[in-house]
Amino acid sequence: MTRRRFVRWTAVLLLAVVLMGLGWGWTKVHPKIGQPFELPSGDGGKLWSFGFVGDTHEGRGITNRIFEKLGEAKLEFVMHLGDLVDRGESDPQWEYVMGQAVRNRLRIMPVVGNHDKERSYDDEGEIRFRQYFPHLPRTYYHFRHRGVNFIVLNSEYVPSPGSTQARFLKWQLEQHPGTTVVCIHRPVFTCSERDSANMYLSRLWVHGGLQGSDAVMVLTGHNHYYERTKPLDGITYVVSGGGARNLYPPEPPNEFTEVFKARKNHYGVVDVYADHMHVRILDLADNQIDSFRVPLKPTDLDPGTLGNRSSRELPPLATLPQYQPDRLALRPGFPNQLPRPW
Question: pLDDT by residue for the chain (342 residues), tens digit each?
Fold first, then answer.
């Protein structure tokens, strides 16, 4: 290693240590811990639903069962919280996961996980996203669906205040007011110390960027268990790595933990109402392992927007490239006709 390269990497390492220390210190005085949202009246009528699942890598025999459950729930889309596959270089693994999505008529809105990268290249998830999700602008993106904003971030880029993604997050929050759900692979708050360097950095730049915004919930994966925090500065954080075969053991809860469940494959279903979202966490036997509500911001209280199917920004399912006849849908072992649009 040349002297110049050594100096550069030493500077990068020192900067990372400093930022991690700032993140650790910041969470000693932040965030403000709140109380779970209590619905003041009846639910009213459900307007629409979406789902989420994380870490389907090494999930053959589990992924298909979870995707079948998600398909039966008649969801408008499914947020995949990263680690779709175990090896980013493996075409059979990608085709298996995407094939299960096609079979069960699921629109996957993906998050990049650490296993989704092509490790043979200088790649942070872009290669496979361009191949399997060519309609997405990049590996971090925003979309709005029936009055609710979704911001997807890529935790495989070094997170830091002032970075491209930090500016992207700030711009999206400013330009798209109203209820926002943020999705990122690596946890921001969890009681486990696994991957703590990334976690403390994320607390500084992700939670720091979300404070005072219209964000109400952050969905993450990476750790193969289920955890929900108390509202932290009004934001509920969820860790959901329930699609994995190798489930993690329990961890001792910390001051932020509201619910922790280990060794359970699971997925989430989110029902959107006129003034709140109702989140249900279900295992493969249809048992409910958690249920909670988060409020919608006042700008979203118009049921005409939230319930209006014409307000969707996502294109019809059958128009997406991965559902065309020359892709997975008509290969041996997969359905003989394309999934119907909504």
Answer: 566 655 555 554 555 555 555 555 555 456 999 888 877 555 578 999 999 999 998 777 899 999 999 999 999 999 999 999 999 999 999 999 999 999 999 999 999 999 999 988 889 999 999 999 988 989 999 999 999 999 999 999 876 778 899 999 999 999 999 999 999 999 999 999 998 888 988 998 999 999 999 999 999 999 999 999 999 999 999 999 999 999 999 999 999 999 999 999 999 999 999 999 999 999 999 999 999 999 998 765 455 556 555 445 677 666 776 666 555 443 444 333 333 322
Tell me the CATH number for domain 48-330. Answer: 3.60.21.10
Where do the domains of the chain lie?
48-330
CA distance linking residue 328 with residue 319, whole number of Å: 14
- Give me the count of residues in the chain: 342
Give the whole-angstrom CA distance, residue 54 versus residue 281.
12
Question: pTM of the entire structure?
Answer: 0.86
Q: Note whether 67 and 101 are within 8 A (CB).
A: yes
Q: What is the largest CA-CA distance in the chain?
A: 67
How far apart CA 46 and CA 48 sit, in angstroms, is 6
